[in-house]
Amino acid sequence: MMGGKRKEWMKTDRKETAQQLQKVIQLSMPAVMAQVSAVAMQYIDTAMVGSLGADATAAIGLVSSTTWLFGGLCIAAATGFSVQAAQLIGGNRDAEARQVLRQAVCTTFLFGTLLLTAGLSISQGLPVWLGGEASVCTEASRYFRIYACALPAAQLRQTAGSMLQCSGDMKVPGRLNMMMCALDVIFNSLLIFPSRKVVLLNHSVWIAGAGLGVAGAALGTALAEAVTAACMLYAVLFRSVHLRLESGCRRDWQEWKPDGRRLCTALRLAVPMGMEHVILCGAQIAGTRIVAPLGTVAVAANSLAVTAESLCYMPGSGISAAATTLVGQSIGAGKPQLAKRYARLSVALGAVVMAVTGGLMFLGAPLMFAMLTPDAAIRALGVRVLRIEAFAEPLFAVSIVTAGALRGAGDTLVPSLMNLASMWGVRITASVILAPRFGLVGVWTAMCTELCVRGVLFLIRLLRGKWLDRRIVV
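The structure corresponding to this sequence follows.
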């Protein structure tokens, strides 16, 4: 009798687990596809710029860590509001979620404008401070200046996309992000290269071009960001099932005034995340300074290897977005045990997927670099360091997806502190020791070690379960 009940319970539990895993996959797939398409865009962009020579590639690579820093701050600002929306929607409080959306649009646009101002103020001296060679500093400065001008649009795109995702709509932001990738390729092909003839199917085709080089790559991305931001805002403000604004809210500007309670909650979530991105990207910038004296080939190989590796970890980022939504909505619905199950299933799925992509990256490294650059020296060095990184991918997935799950519960401070200890205590320290002796190989060995340490730290945090006690909206 007892044995029969036990078997029935196990059968039911397996069925529920299968349904929950299916939901994780369903929510993850659009986000994963959007992330993969974004990486494909980076590959095409990099290949376009790479055809201009090592200096052009190094110019973008020199400031890439700083662009990640600014992009990370945009993500932090958006998350401060989107996690609130996820928990409110989970508790069937859509009207309050729409209030959060209004606060998010106004506040994050102002924040994006502040980032623009900061970016313009440092654009001239940044490449020199990062230790770039004179041959690349001018183009690097021009690239970053144009990038900074697009930050308000990038912030609004991130905010609107995050709000849609946390409402459970992964398809629309996924499609729009893929559209942005396509637009970026089109704009870049028109702006990077001069007017030229291209042979297609034995026919000569004339293609107009501006011939702006590295600056054209930045301008193409900026235009793609602006178009996508407009589409994303339209989708969340007028089409979202849970978040679209009622006609009265559109007309009544009183509804858009700052709400101290929502803003304080957003700050409580966003500030630790912002500090986390400052810590991570500050370490990456420090890493750039460590790599810069190794020469143009090392800087270019480092930049291209980071781009190549991103194809491997982007699926983890997509699964992380799904974990944020599922955990946030479960917490908001008052179901912490369901939140725990979704978190663990998401982390397990991310680790398996990135173990597979890590293996593919190890085997396909030569082909990746053959697509990214014609320079033989850059290819050879890039393949060596990329294969080192492949061994860290499963534990890297654990850290990425766990961070997303914890974010859904409102747990952002402790993960930030763990990243601080891992990045500066392991990666930068080891890089400083290994770079003078082993060059770029030493830097990437330090990076691989640090990602493994970070994964273990996040796994311990996940399994201990203290984050389940958090609930950011009342």
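The first helix runs from residue 2 to 50.
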